[in-house]
Design brief:
Elements lengths: L26 H17 L2 E6 L4 H9 L3 E3 L1 H10 L4 E5 L2 H10 L4 E3 L8 H4 L3 H9 L5 E5 L4 H6 L2 E3 L4 H10 L4 E4 L2 H11 L3 E3 L12 H10 L4 E4 L5 H4 L4 E2 L2 H10 L4 E5 L5 H7 L4 E4 L23 H10 L8 H21 L10
Parallel strand pairs: 1-2, 1-3, 3-4, 5-6, 5-7, 7-8, 9-10, 9-11, 11-12
EC number: 2.5.1.72
Cofactor: [4Fe-4S] cluster
GO molecular function, one term: metal ion binding
Length: about 350
């Protein structure tokens, strides 16, 4: 019997999330800021692209001004197609970088460059590159929630909407996969496709916190509710889902399923859009902890909460917080993204990672 060599799996850094600080504004201050931002955007030929997990104020402003509320990749693609010379990206840092990778000729600004992502932080480029070097026989596939430098090291970038199809395609070719950074999404893809995958051990601080035992109790309390789960969640949580999918798929399920109540296991920023497309339905946050918890669910990204109207106005007035990526890194990163886009176009699938970055 052939003895397989023991593979030393990487240990992701321990990520400590910052305190949750959400913007609190009076109605008059909010109105003044919105008017000022609209004026500055018009003067600077700017468009606002925002993620689903940002505040209702940011999402509403993006749509009111002809911008976009979506996932990181679709935000970047929208910015590329739009005539605006300045893209304001309300989200987390890797989203601004993705926008710059696909739109190098445009100015890309962010309200707060400290708005990071636990998946991105858990996959330092130098350590990841060294791990890739140890396994040259494997195709490197990374989730979009990674830095420009990690994307530059990858063969493929995937989203939650394309991950299964792309890994399935590579598996049929006999390829072995090195996957990063989300271990839960990687586990879901591996179980779905049967591919040989080495998984980097990163996790989203929001989705990792969902608890299966508490969710099971919540299902019993709401027997008619459908459970919607993002695949960045732990396997035990995914096993309780009625629908597993990207943010777009979860929004579509909320809109089209006959259920009047939904238990939702993803960032609660998505509720703003769900309530807009499925008014009258009830949306409950999936539990992030059990007995003794200080909150029933804390399902919101503290880095996403760093985006606010005050910071948005400040960055337009100052021109600070511009995203810069060196051309050698950008040119390598765009290849791995373009490979996904070409595959998606050929397979006629929507390459959308709605949420999670």
């Amino acid at each position: 019997m052939k003895i397989m060599p023991l593979i030393q799996m990487p240990k992701a850094p321990n990520i400590i999330a910052p305190p949750m600080v959400e913007e609190q504004l009076t109605d008059s201050v909010r109105a003044t800021l919105i008017a000022r931002i609209k004026q500055l955007m018009l003067q600077q030929n700017a468009v606002l692209v925002a993620h689903y997990y940002t505040s209702a104020d940011i999402q509403d402003l993006a749509e009111e001004t002809g911008g976009c509320v979506s996932d990181s990749l679709e935000m970047a693609r929208f910015g590329h197609a739009h005539a605006a010379r300045t893209l304001i990206v309300a989200g987390v840092k890797f989203m601004g970088e993705t926008a710059k990778i696909l739109n190098p000729e445009k100015r890309v600004l962010m309200p707060d460059l400290q708005a990071n992502c636990s998946l991105d932080l858990a996959c330092p480029a130098d350590e990841f590159s060294a791990f890739c070097d140890q396994h040259p026989e494997r195709v490197v596939v990374v989730y979009a929630n990674t830095s420009a430098a990690v994307k530059a090291r990858a063969d493929w970038v995937v989203t939650s909407g394309t991950a299964v199809k792309i890994v399935e395609h590579l598996h049929k070719q006999g390829k072995k996969i090195l996957w990063a950074p989300d271990k839960y999404l990687g586990d879901y893809v591996q179980k779905t496709t049967g591919a040989d995958m080495l998984l980097w051990q990163g996790a989203c601080v929001v989705h990792e916190a969902f608890k299966a035992e508490a969710l099971q109790k919540m299902k019993l309390a709401h027997p008619d509710a459908a459970v919607l789960v993002h695949p960045e969640s732990p396997a035990a949580v995914i096993a309780l889902a009625d629908v597993v999918g990207s943010t777009t798929q979860l929004i579509h399920a909320a809109q089209t399923l006959p259920n009047q109540t939904f238990i939702v296991a993803t960032d609660n920023g998505i509720f703003h859009k769900m309530q807009a497309v499925a008014s009258g339905k009830i949306f409950l946050e999936a539990p992030t902890a059990g007995t003794g918890a200080t909150c029933i669910s804390c399902a919101h990204c503290p880095w996403m909460a760093m985006n606010g109207l005050q910071k948005l106005a400040q960055v337009l007035e100052s021109g600070d917080n511009e995203i810069h990526i060196t051309e050698p890194v950008r040119s390598r990163a765009v290849r791995s993204i373009q490979r996904m886009l070409d595959f998606a176009a050929e397979q006629q699938i929507a390459p959308r990672m709605r949420g999670a970055a």
